[in-house]
């Protein structure tokens, strides 16, 4: 019997070996299936921005560079003053100028540091539209039509760009540096044009009532001349009238922001937070500045962007605070990026006196003759300074790009906001525990010194700990320019009927309001509840009217 078992065993081994060989050959011959993405082909993409500085424009060109590297034909459309911003992105992104800036109104005229939406701002915005709308509209229209444009990425301020794209049925995306959109499910007007925090969480009933029924109507009234001018210029150009927000409808809003700097809230399917996008490269430290940073261990960097400069009183408070921190050895040096033009302000103090009695001649500080540890520079490589391990604090106006660069490098912030998105940004950084905010209108020396010292000393280590998590968040989020490029390609290849981004449209667009909000169900439920309560109440009242003891019937004789 053992002989037969041996023969059977050998045959089974042969069979199993044969099956294994066949399976191996089948696997070798067929191979694994690797998913392949279809090659969609190159497209013509235009990025437009005619207002703002490098921080307003560069992040969109970073996305454009990624798209160009993927084979697309990408152009940056602007006016002559902004052509310089496109130079670092050539030849990947081609720069096209529509000509000179044809208005006396400059970007800085669109903001008033004393009143958020003042009469001067309204006048500037109105004149800018009158001066530039027609020239820009026809330039965009001709360019889009002649180049067979596949998609347009328009700046939030560029009305002619949107109108030309819409007239030609070209898909478009709005690029924004802040959340000014009805799709954010928040009162976007109040979050920008009404002073205060970006959310109503810490506002009292009185404050919320005032914002909603006094400030907001006041803003709408002041803004009405701008709306009328837009309507007039569109009619003059032969374009049908439109509502103030119609150009936003069905358009993706690409925002250079992120949760952590933006206040988390529900957003619609047409909103994409793609930030913080920072530049691929930055200027390095000049040798003398690198030597300064290497030789000082606690450096404060101060800069207020290209558009803003502190008043004489603000300058005095800030400089006095820094000098006292220097005398107390809380910092051992500072670099203040203060332009030559700003130094000519007539209201700047001639000298500063600290509580120790020391007197500093401001002119000597500017020239560097007073103390080599206290540097005023006409221009500074901001990112390189923030990137140095010895930079311990950034005193900033709170512009989005400046905050992004500071957080990327893990440098806490003392914020001195002027206008625009800066107050909301300052509030958010304070809430995140990575900075503190000053009230520039208060000119409070005690408060400024206290906050400066609190961040630099960081006795409880909270700023350091909070910044570690924020820095990680920002560095990871900074990769999202590739996500932004994916999103643009998504629109390019998924759009229907030329400009219908169908797959992002909310279903409520095709639903009755009562059905979309479930008000019909709620009303029926409420009616049923009221009916039930009425029945219960009537029953209860009826029971109360019954006598407690039934009278006995008298027996008949």
TrEMBL record:
The keyword Chaperone does not apply. GO terms for molecular function: UDP-glycosyltransferase activity. Keywords: Glycosyltransferase, Membrane, Transferase, Transmembrane, Transmembrane helix. InterPro entries: UDP-glycosyltransferase (IPR050271), UDP_glucos_trans (IPR002213), UDP_glycos_trans_CS (IPR035595). The keyword DNA damage does not apply. The chain crosses the membrane at residues 523-544. Belongs to the UDP-glycosyltransferase family. PANTHER family: EG:EG0003.4 PROTEIN-RELATED, FI06409P-RELATED. This is UDP-glycosyltransferases domain-containing protein.
